[in-house]
Amino acid sequence: MTPSTTAPSFGQIHFSGLDLSDARANRRIIDLADMLVGNEAESWPAKFAGPADYRAFGKIVNRPQATHPSVRATHTRVTRDPTARTEDVVLVLHDTTELDYSGRAVRGLGPIGNGWGRGWECHNSLAVVARTGAVLGLANQIRHRRVEPAVTAAEGMAARRDRADRESRLWGHGVDAVGDAPAGRTWIHGCDRGADTFEFLQPMAGAGRSFVIRSRSNRRLVGSEAKLHDHVRSVPAQAGWRGEAREGSGRSRPVKLQGCWATVTVPAPRARHTVTVQVIRVWEVEVPAGETGVEWFLLTDRVVEDVARMREVVSYYPRRPIIEEYHKALKTGCGVEKLQHRTRAALAAAMGITSVLAVALLELRDLARQDTPAVSVVGERAVRVSSVWRSGVVQPHWRVREFLWALGRLGRHVNRPSDGTPGWQTLWRGPRKLRPVIAYDIKSSPTCGTS
C-alpha cells in the first residue's frame, strides 16, 4: 500500500527522535521502518527491498546508540501524548509473554519455558481507549532475564518473597514505568490473574493508581470467616444483562450474565498490612450443556455504588485480550522470534523496533472505524485497484472502512454479518494479493509513478 504523501510516514512518527550519532543512519532507520511496517513476508531478509537494506538494518541495531530503550523512546512519547490529551478513560493493559531465541549463539539470555529454552520474558504495557478499544501504543516494555536456578531447594518462602528478580514484580515495575496519569485524566491499569498479589495491590492502592485485576486467589478476609470468593458468592445478584463470552479458540457465544459487588479488606500474607478494595463478581446463568460458565472476580479501586458504575468497571476487563492480540502480532505477524542477530545488544534493539512495528498491525483494525477518505491513508492507486477488483469500477470516494472491507475480502474474510469486522490477521493477508496487482498496474499505467 502506498502511504499518503501529505502525512508523516510511520517511520517519521515513531523513529524520528532516535539519535544514532550519524545523520545518514538517522534517515535510514526511518526509511527501513517504512519498508518493514505491514510487510507480511515470513523471513526477515524477505521483509526488505534487497540485501543492502537487510545489511543496513543489521548495522543500525549493532550501533551502541541503538539500545532497547532508545529505539522505543519516540514511540513511547507518541503513545503517552495521545493518552494525556484524550478525554476518554485509558486502559493500560499489562501482560508477559516469552520470546524464544533457543538455538542462537547469543550470550546473556535466560531460561524460558521448562528451563531448557533460551530467551527473555517480555512484559508489555499497552495503552488502549477504554470506550472503543482503539490502540494508542506501547506505553512500556520490560525485557526480563530469568536467573538460573530460578529457585533453590534451600530457599524458604520469606526469602523467595523478598527476591528482587521475582517475575511477579514485573507487574509493579510496568506500572511504575508508565507513571501517573496527567491531572484531570484517568488511566486504569488492567491485569490478569498473575497480578493478584498483595505486593502489587498494596502499592497500587497506596499510590492512588486505578486498577482492575482479575482475582486468582480465594484469600482470607479481615472481619469475615468466609474467604473472598466464597464471601462474594453469598451476595445476591444486583444486576443482569446479556453479553458475549469469548472462548480460548476465539469463538464467541451469547451469554446471560448477572453481577454483584462488595467492599472487602484483604490482609497481607503475614498480616502486617491490609488493603481495602471493591470486588465485583460476574457470572453466567442458564449455561448451555457442554459449555463452561463464565465467572469473574474483579478487584478494583474504583468506587462502585450503583449498577451503572459496576457495568462500567466490568466493561474494562473484556478489553484485556487486546494485549494477547498484540503478542500474536509481535510473534506471528512481525516474526520477532525469527530475528538472527548474534549479540544480546543487537537482538534487544531489533526486538524493540519490532515491538513498535507490531502496534501498526493492531491499528489496522482501528482504521475500519474511521470515516475518512481512503486515498488520504493508502493512496489513490491502492484504492483504484482494490475498488475495480471488488466492484468492477473505480470508486475514488471510498472511505477507509470500505477499503478495509475489500482488503479483508482479499484476506479471505467472508463478510457475513456474523463474522464481524476483519481482524488484523485477515487485513494483513490482503496486501499479499493486492501488492502484485498494484505492481502490474504501475508497469502498465501510462501515468506510471505519479501516485
From TrEMBL:
<dbReference type="InterPro" id="IPR002559">
    <property type="entry name" value="Transposase_11"/>
</dbReference>
<dbReference type="InterPro" id="IPR012337">
    <property type="entry name" value="RNaseH-like_sf"/>
</dbReference>
<dbReference type="GO" id="GO:0003677">
    <property type="term" value="F:DNA binding"/>
</dbReference>
<protein>
    <recommendedName>
        <fullName>Transposase IS4-like domain-containing protein</fullName>
    </recommendedName>
</protein>
<feature type="domain" description="Transposase IS4-like">
    <location>
        <begin position="192"/>
        <end position="354"/>
    </location>
</feature>
<dbReference type="InterPro" id="IPR054836">
    <property type="entry name" value="Tn5_transposase"/>
</dbReference>
<dbReference type="GO" id="GO:0006313">
    <property type="term" value="P:DNA transposition"/>
</dbReference>
<dbReference type="InterPro" id="IPR047768">
    <property type="entry name" value="Tn5p-like"/>
</dbReference>
<dbReference type="GO" id="GO:0004803">
    <property type="term" value="F:transposase activity"/>
</dbReference>
<dbReference type="InterPro" id="IPR014737">
    <property type="entry name" value="Transposase_Tn5-like_C"/>
</dbReference>
<dbReference type="Pfam" id="PF01609">
    <property type="entry name" value="DDE_Tnp_1"/>
</dbReference>
